[in-house]
Amino acid sequence: MNVSDPTSAAPDRTDAARVSSPVGLHRVLEPTGDAITLPQAARRLDASPRLWKDEVRIAVETLNLDAASYRQLAEKHSTDGAVDGGAVRAEVLDIVATRGKMQNPVTGSGGMLIGTVAEVGPDSTLGLAVGDRVATLVSLSLTPLAITDGLSLWDGLSEQVPAEGHAILFGRSIAATLPTDLDPHLALMVMDVCGAPALVERVVGEYAARGVAPTVAVLGGAGKSGSLSLAAARAAGAGRTIGVVPVERERTVLESSGLADAVVLADARSPLGLAAAVESAGGPADVTVVCVDVPGCEQPAILATAQGGTIIFFSMATNFAAAALGAEGLAADVRMLVGNGYVPGHAETALRLVRDVPAVRALFEGRLATEKAGSDA
């Protein structure tokens, strides 16, 4: 079966081994039998359009590749710093056709999408109706996906991908209706990283509940998840916020936004450099949030964090073995949290910050304008 062909017939639904599962086991084509895995870990999914009773089919409008995945693809297909957008597009199409989902085989990550609800199974509990315009809040790395337009409207030069096709949501998936007061592509940007500010709000709130106003350092503070995390930390009771950025241009942008009490220039991969920069701005941090999309930031983040502090790794480029072993080797008493992308109410939290904090909205609108300008060039 060609998993990229939306007209392909689904497997026989009378097969007892493929009874509908709310977590999507019935859509796993490889591996099978005793080796079967959940959809995120599967090698190939059934992306056919015919629904099981608890599923929902989405007519796809735009994919949003996660930052780590797009960076890997762009760097792979670059020559002398120039990205070959056609090669990036071809690889994304091949991944979807081969795997029945958009899961970068190097990073393991995917992204999310926006689209319109096309069909709702009679037993679906997601609360969606045909015609709803939604953003999926689950990763493309586990979402059955078929592309029908060859991504002909995408130049391969941005994370947002105009696309036609369909995606399938399982009984236990998550989706949110797009707000009517925001550009849908802006909303997609926000919802793609909404887990970060929600988790930061929770963690900083735990400190505040104990009467502690923590110092919070955000690595990648000028980015999407970073800027939202800074705003969330301040709103939740942080005593001091430190934004860490890698280049002067981002420092200028973040300083002018006022989202951080201090902005420092440092390579998040440099253990001593990062620790010194954070200390110069009032650190070490009680809470360090890693929002950068490059590997090698684990031990630097540990050194920049106070004993007894907390590190939130919200990056698909994180090597969690390196983080755990690095903390042990440095005799660092730090709590390390994996930002898994889901916190109850995370979409509402992120959208509230965009609406209530003009500096955050300005950063997102500026990024969106830059991406649109790049695509039009």
What is the CATH H-level superfamily of the largest domain? Answer: NAD(P)-binding Rossmann-like Domain
CATH architecture of the largest domain: 3-Layer(aba) Sandwich
CATH first level of the largest domain: Alpha Beta
General form: globular
**Structure annotation, total helices:** 11
DSSP helix fraction: 25-40%
Low-confidence stretches: 1-17
Q: Kindly report how far apart the N and C termini lie.
A: 38 Å
What about the largest sheet? 7 strands, antiparallel
Q: How many domains, in number, for the residues?
A: 2
**Count of β-strands:** 17
- What name is given to the CATH topology of the largest domain? Rossmann fold
Structural class: alpha/beta
**What is the string of SSEs from the N terminus onward?**
EEEHEEHEEEEEEHHEHEHEHEHEHEHH
Average pLDDT across residues?
Answer: 92
Provide an overview of this structure.
By secondary structure, the chain is α/β, with parallel strands linked by helices. The chain has 2 domains: 16-178, no CATH class; 195-363, Rossmann fold (3-Layer(aba) Sandwich). The protein has 11 helices and 17 strands. It has helices spanning 67-76, 85-99, 184-192, 195-209, 224-236, 248-257, 271-280, 298-303, 320-329, 346-356, 358-376, and strands at 28-30, 44-45, 56-65, 78-79, 82-83, 111-120, 133-136, 145-147, 160-162, 165-169, 175-177, 215-219, 240-245, 262-265, 285-290, 305-313, 335-338. Strands 3, 6, 7, 8, 9, 10 and 11 form a 7-stranded antiparallel sheet that branches. A 6-stranded parallel sheet has the order 14-13-12-15-16-17, with helices on both faces. Strand 12 (215-219), helix 5 (224-236) and strand 13 (240-245) form a beta-alpha-beta unit. The longest helix has 19 residues, at 358-376. The chain is globular and about 55 Å long.
